[in-house]
Amino acid sequence: MEISLRPYQEEVVQTALMGENSIIWLPTGGGKTRAAVYVAKKHLERQPEAKVAVLVNKVHLVDQHYQKEFLPYLGGTVKIVPISGDSKEKDFFGLVVRDSDLVICTAQILENALMNTEEDKHVEVTDFTLLIIDECHHTHKSNVYNKIMARYVEKKLQGVGPLPQVLGLTASPGTGGAKTLEGAVAHVLKICANLDSAIVFTKHYKPMLTEAVPRPVKKYDIVEEQVLDPFGLHLKMMMRMIHEFMSSELKVVLREMGTQDYEADVVDLEKRGVQKENRLLAQCARHLRKYNDALLIKDAVRMVDALHLLEDFYSTQRNNTLDGTDIFLSALFEENQVELEQLAADMRYENPKLAQLQRTLVEQFQDRESRGILFTKTREGTRCLCDWVHDNPELQSANIQAAILTGAGTGANHMTQNGQKETIQKFRKGGLNLLISTSVAEEGLDIPECNVVVRYGLLTNEIAQQQATGRARAKDSVYSVVALKDGREMRREMTNEYLEDLTGRAIAQVHRMDPSEFRKKVLDLQTESVTERTLARMQHTQRRQRYSPTQVEFACRGCFTTVARGDHMRVVNSSQHVNINPDFRKHYEKGNQVYLDRSFEDWEPGHTISCIECGQDWGMEIKIRKVLVLPCVKIKGFLVKAPGSKRTVEQWKDVEFPVDEFDFVQFVSDMNLSGV
Prior knowledge:
Helices cover 45% and strands 17% of the residues. It contains 21 helices and 24 strands. α6 links the parallel β5 (130-133) and β6 (165-170). It has a seven-stranded parallel beta sheet. It has a six-stranded parallel beta sheet with strand order 8-13-12-9-11-10, with helices on both faces. The protein has 676 residues and is α/β, with parallel strands linked by helices. The longest helix is centred in the C-terminal third of the chain and has 30 residues, at 515-544. It folds into four domains: 7-211, P-loop containing nucleotide triphosphate hydrolases (Rossmann fold, 3-Layer(aba) Sandwich), CATH 3.40.50.300; 215-225 and 351-503, Rossmann fold (3-Layer(aba) Sandwich); 230-348, phosphoenolpyruvate carboxylase, domain 3; 549-674, RIG-I-like receptor, C-terminal regulatory domain (Metal Binding Protein, Guanine Nucleotide Exchange Factor, Chain A, Beta Complex), CATH 2.170.150.30.
């Protein structure tokens, strides 16, 4: 199929067609992907032994780009392979790359292949002649895009080559949090340095671009603040009782309840309690965080949703009573549960934002064929809002067919990758007309018919706001912000409008730079980054050698019972950390079977595991090579103790002792010798 580009697309691909690195800056819906397909086609035709990698940051984009863009235009002439987490091809990625002309994959799959030392799985950046990086504004800090490009930049500075051409795609590089033009320019230059590219945009066809990608009508659906909130006040009264209960240990002033600031305070408080092995402090902090979650849910959705959150939490706590702290906390909830139920049932005090959201949705969906996305902050919030839509007679009479769309994963409220694909496909085909989504739907989702976007209770940056605006692509589409009058969401929305303008000014200033000055600034930033990464690697190596594994103990984060040592730990495939000590089994109990919608070459999931004393989540069992079952432990389920040190660790990469690779043959041999 012939590729037809609009004049503004033809303008922005010229740098790439000359073989130079570039970042295409076009708004969502402007046809960045189609332009990239055109560049890939010309590159494959002109470059001897060309090999292209298209990198995306969301699983569903692999199939979307393959089916809707690259396959229709290139499938008849080149071999294209889409690879995501549930693709068997990922297990021999190196072979697939060598046997293909173009691969479309998540960036993490390429990063895994770059790190893998097995010949059939390993690739080098230099194996490709063109890298296309979708949503390339994420190429900064510790993002996987930046890890890949860091290798590229290091090879460039070392003179290793030839390196692939780079083509980045973005609707907005953002300002990186900067509020001044100088800071925004510095951020744009940093993105350029990380991608070793210059930003290109249309200068001659702006009116045509505006006509092709009309911005939706923006409306603020403002709500007056709730005057009476007896349910929220009652929750705060209970929280103050917990404050009083731990007053002798509470050495800090906690900020306003029902805010993200308060959540940060109690998270720190829980860590401090664990590090001090002070169970009163740690447990009270955990429960306070759950009450704060309930306040946030109450402010976003219904009182009954907040109550259900607490009821679900306390139903899991009843079997794990260890001391007076547990007795007090459980009794406090049980004694107040009936009153909370009565308050939650009183519709006079329901969240006023919901009434406005109902009016907004009815206005947009009644008597018309609409399709929309409702953005909210959390996975829990999407679930609660979806329940509300299904339970709401007014919304059902408007024929709203809603489903949630959240990020893929294995935790609570995560979707499976297949679940994501099915929901998106159903939405495209019309079986659904409203997606209730977290930020996962802000980027890349190809739904040109979408004519309603609602942002509900969101505090995000200018990139997310601009991406969400771009979801409303249909003619006469509407972008609605439902927020409290003079609230934080309103202030952030206004700030983001300023930052969106600031981004454009920063890009324009960078574009006006003398080419030699631009190249020097980029080179200086790249040299600085390589130096920083080298130093960070040295520090990480030193940190991993701080203690001998035999010096390190693992205590349960919930009850502080010591259950393992560092020398019991091994790492499987550089990712799964298992405990090889058979005595560890007596410390945990098994729960439900874990089901994942993707397969792994050397292992498969088993049952969840938790502390037999207090119920603390410790991870799951895994079956290695279909025969050997071992516990795979979450580091954040433990207090890590070493000489002169007690700390909580969120990720295994941050432990301060070396962990050996798991040797399957040696382990089985040792088992046979010991008679296990």
